[in-house]
Amino acid sequence: MKATIGKALFNSYSYLEYRKILSDLLRDEKSSGNEQSKELTNYSSLNETRMNRLDKTIKIQPEVSVKLKELKGEYIWMVLSEGWCGDAAQLLPIMDKMAITSEGKIELKIVFRDENEELMNLFLTNKGKAIPKLILINRETGTALAHWGPRPKGAVDLIANYKKEHGQIDETIKADLQMWYLHDKGLSTQSEIIDMMIDLDQ
Fold first, then answer.
1. What is the CA radius of gyration of the chain?
2. Average pLDDT in the 68-95 region?
3. How far, in Å, CA of 7 to CA of 160, rounded?
4. Are 108 and 102 in contact (CB under 8 A)?
5. 148: which strand partners?
6. Rounded-to-integer distance, Cα 133 and Cα 81, Å
7. How many CB atoms lie within 10 A of CB 143?
8. For the chain, what are the domain ranges?
9. Pairing of strands 75-81, 106-112
10. 2-150+191-200 belongs to which homologous superfamily?
11. Is residue 7 within 8 Å of residue 111, measured between CB atoms?
């Protein structure tokens, strides 16, 4: 696992680098990832607008900010993502702000899922390649300590309940999920991730 993580880190990007790659692809009417379609490009375009908005509006809660700065260790957050992923667009701006707020305790690195299949296969969700997937790495040892994602619990429950009732994921629940994120304002994500960090930062 350590070799796989090291290889992925070598091919990782900062948040700003990731955003630039996605923007450059969109200028060529493409999305990231192995599969290309008009639908995926449209999702990517929508997600760029979404991330632009969240970059300006996301606020890290004061208590979360304090806990981030009080972390004893130093960590890398390596996140598996793709430009077409709606959940990633909602969550990466939060992770970026949390990393910045940590004042050097956390470094955010992003890798593309389809370019890092070996890594993705180590962190499946119910046997699926669900993203985004945040892998918490000890910076000193390069060891993976935990992982989180692809969604905060409230969003996971929303999808699971809809799928149980309707048998599939469709455009209705996708719209409902985006509304859930809008109303949550990143609070659940901040809370779940900082709780995970504190549990491991002993």
1. 16
2. 97
3. 34
4. no
5. 134
6. 7
7. 12
8. 2-150+191-200
9. parallel
10. Glutaredoxin (3.40.30.10)
11. no
